[in-house]
Amino acid sequence: MTAALEQSHQIFHFTGHGAYNSLDPSQSCLFLTGSDRLTLLEIVQLHLSAYHLVCLAACETAVTGDQTITDEYVGLVSAFLKAGVGHILSTLWRVESMTSMIMMVQFYRELQQQKPPAIALKAAQAFLRSGTRDQLVNWFTEAIALLSINPANRSFCILLADERDRVQSTEDEHPYAHPYYWAAFHIAGAR
Predict the structure, then answer these.
(1) Residue ranges per domain, the chain?
(2) How many CB atoms lie within 10 A of CB 166?
(3) What is the mean pLDDT of residues 5-34?
(4) Of 46, 52, 50, nearest to 30 (Cα)?
(5) CA-CA distance, 33 to 16, in Å (whole number)?
């Protein structure tokens, strides 16, 4: 995995599980396939200055502690910063999968409009926070139509349809307005 990361790319997107190890922060990690992990100790040894953005769409990837390797707080974000990454999008707590997916899709749509990562994140959070029931139902319907072109996406389309139906049946005009859904996402950057 580390060799693949050091190839010349601008964005690394990780969706999965991350963990902060408060007893040994150097073992904080991103969980990969099977028992494989990418630890903080491995990340700080990489040269990732080609990356404009690392997106850690996983639970608790922004969590840090003061039991340190150096004089500063240590966590996955600081490891990627030390490795030379320009911006890191991470989360402060366990995030709900469906709203995390919406957040990431909106974030990348904003980035495609040439917005800086911090502005793109703010716009994606605003979409989720202020999105009306009807806007979100339309969002899900469009996503399902786009994804259903490929039969391999069938199970994902079923999940999206279930969430669309849940949103459509709610009496809440802004189903994802609560900060739980959008405030966990955080961006840090060195350049």
Answers:
(1) 2-95+183-189, 132-175
(2) 12
(3) 85
(4) 46
(5) 10
The first and second tokens of residue 139, run together, are 């969002």
Enter the tokens of residue 3.
């060799």
Token reading at 113: 């409009």
| Segment 173-188 mean pLDDT | 95
CATH architecture of 2-95+183-189: 3-Layer(aba) Sandwich (3.40)
Q: What is the 3-state secondary structure (H, E, C) of 76-132?
A: HHHHHHHCCCCEEEEECCCCCHHHHHHHHHHHHHHHHCCCCHHHHHHHHHHHHHHCC
Q: How many CB atoms lie within 10 A of CB 105?
A: 14
Q: How far is CA 148 from CA 75, 107, 159, 161, 168, in A?
A: 38, 22, 12, 11, 20
